[in-house]
Amino acid sequence: MAKTLEFFFDYASPYSYLACNQVEAVAQRTGAELRWRPFLLGAVFKATGNHTPTQVPQKGVYIAKDLQDWVRYLKLPTLVLPESFPINSLKANRVGLVAAEQGKVAAFSHAAYRAAFAEGKDLSDPKVLAEVARAVGLDPNKTLAHIENQEIKDALRRNTEEAVARGVFGAPTFFVGDNMFFGNDRLMFVEQALREA
Amino acid sequence: MAKTLEFFFDYASPYSYLACNQVEAVAQRTGAELRWRPFLLGAVFKATGNHTPTQVPQKGVYIAKDLQDWVRYLKLPTLVLPESFPINSLKANRVGLVAAEQGKVAAFSHAAYRAAFAEGKDLSDPKVLAEVARAVGLDPNKTLAHIENQEIKDALRRNTEEAVARGVFGAPTFFVGDNMFFGNDRLMFVEQALREA
User: Fold this and answer.
1) Do A73 and B189 touch (CB under 8 A)?
2) Over the range A110-146, which residues count as b (16 or more CB within 10 Å of their CB) and which as e?
3) What single-letter DSSP state applies at residue B173?
4) Is the pLDDT of residue B2 over 80?
5) pLDDT confidence band for A53 (50 / 70 / 90)
6) How far is CA B130 from the centre of its chain?
7) CB contact under 8 A, A69 and B181
8) Residue A33 exposed, middle or buried by CB count within 10 Å (0-12, 13-18, 19+)
């Protein structure tokens, strides 16, 4: 049976951006199939009673610094928090699902995260989403129309509800079977679990 | 000037137990002086509005699993959460300060964490504290009398207030100068900062 690495993420989450830059290599090194599963982090915070990262002011200040420590550690070019942070990522997450239908979720995810966290663009703006979609070979008009379909809205809701039901309380979260790992900083455990799967 | 690694911790914190098992090696590899700074994590949670780890039920469940992942990763013998968890660590933290006065804080910390998180003993019990104190060469009666002195109570309060003033919101937290790092899982950044200090 093929090993699967499930990656629950939200385009609003800068730690998911960090994970997005590592997770394919983990899957590749372990021969796992990577499943990109966009979900709505805000709804997860609400369902679990978890804080958003900026709700505790001291944590918000630290996170901004911590993200820069990670950028350096992972040798990423940059990480900016867009002016629109926290981002309303509802539409972006839905586009992620459309991209997945068309086999372009990896490319779209990299491009969307780059737009948000390297270029500081506002992913809640349909014009920005159209631009990112176009850049990875998705038809921008069709894509933006498609995300208004109930089927896509329901798919995002299902991912979110499934995540909460499986114990998720933040992003990024990974699953190797039923074994859950929270955070970009647990990828060494994810990799180990995949090696043993 | 000597490099200093400040280690803010609480004997109630299992992640601080994990850090306690790594932090001396980090200091040694980087030639840094390690300052053990017990503080009262509960007061920090209160002052910052941060959740305690068990306040979000899904997080509590995950943390229990995550700690076991860490035990395996760090090759520790075991980690149990005592029946008395979350532990009332007020007295233990004060004994930590007494131990520091006598140059025995490292030995006491290892022994106290082992009692709590390897043997499941209740660190709020003066008999347990006396036993741990004795095992590391502290006079148990004098130690338990000393922690009732205002000077020790104030010292713990000062550590706690200083931590909050410097941006701390949880444990363990490390400082290299003004550079703050939160969590056992950031020791690679701590080590890097010390190498560059």
Assistant:
1) yes
2) bbbbbbbbeeebbbbeeebbbebbeebebebeebbeb
3) E
4) no
5) confident
6) 18
7) yes
8) exposed
> Which chain A residues are closer than 8 Å to B52 by Cβ?
none
What the block records as the tokens of B147 is: 């922690």
Q: Give the pairing type, strands A4-9 and A173-176.
A: antiparallel
Q: How far is B145 from chain A (nearest CA, A)?
A: 36
Kindly give the residue spans of alpha helices, DSSP state H, lying in chain A. Answer: 14-20, 23-30, 41-48, 57-73, 90-101, 105-117, 126-135, 140-146, 150-165, 187-196
Phi and psi at residue A90, in whole multiples of 5°? -55, -50
pLDDT at B1: 57
- Report residue A48 as tokens: 């679990």
From the CB of residue A78, how many other CB atoms can be counted at a distance below 10 Å? 11
CB A176 within 8 A of CB A194: yes
- Return the residue in A55, A69, A190 with the most chain B beta carbons within 10 A, the one to mutate for interface testing: A69
- Rounded Cα distance, B173 and B193, in Å: 14
Task: Determine if the pTM surpasses 0.90.
Answer: yes
Q: How far is CA A9 from the centre of its chain?
A: 3
